[in-house]
Amino acid sequence: MNLKQSVARYTLQKRVLKLLKDENDMLGNDIGSAMRELYDMGGVAKVDAEHQGVKIGTVSARLGKAKRDLKIKDLDSYRAWCEANGYVLCKTDDQGVKRHFEATGEVPDGCEVVDVKAEWLGITCRPDRKAIDGLLPSMMPGLKGLIGDE
């Protein structure tokens, strides 16, 4: 391949890559929003990707670690417990109380134990390279459609 051919191929690839990146970013945002909704409503954290009946990968939610936390249900009882157990500064030492709870399991007066859902961090995609490489020829019409969609 001579320089002129290489430059032409490079230029075409740059344009196609830009089109793919733009659409990929948009799809990623849409998928992330939809998956966040699925996770919030029913705990769905993974969706398989299929093309022509062949699994080509998965898109999964990235989640922070689920944890146990305290929820104050009776502020007066909670404050009294904090005063009696040395967890009062100018205000209650909520972080100190949480550390005490985590270390001992003791639930302060005025609190109840609640399970906090894992924090949503986004999505991750794991393509199955071998499956996709085998399907690339049949996928080309769909990819080529990007150029005409402007």
How would you describe this structure to a colleague?
- It is a single chain.
- With 150 residues, this protein is an alpha+beta fold.
- The protein is 54% helix and 24% strand.
- It is built from 4 helices and 5 strands, in the order H-E-E-E-H-H-E-E-H.
- The protein has helices at 3-42, 75-84, 94-104, 129-148; strands at residues 46-51, 54-63, 67-72, 111-116, 120-127.
- It has a 3-stranded antiparallel β-sheet with strand order 1-2-5. A two-stranded antiparallel ribbon has the order 3-4.
- The two termini are 30 Å apart.
- The model is unreliable at 145-150 (pLDDT under 50).
Give a short overview.
This protein has 150 residues and is an alpha+beta fold. Helices cover 54% and strands 24% of the residues.
Continuous helix count: 4
In percent, how helical is the residue content? 40-55%
Indicate the proportion of strand residues: 15-25%
Question: Which overall shape is indicated by the principal axes computed on the Cα atoms?
Answer: elongated
Q: Give the termini distance in whole angstroms.
A: 30 Å
Q: What integer value in Å does the Rg equal?
A: 26 Å
| Mean pLDDT reading | 85
Give the low-confidence spans.
145-150
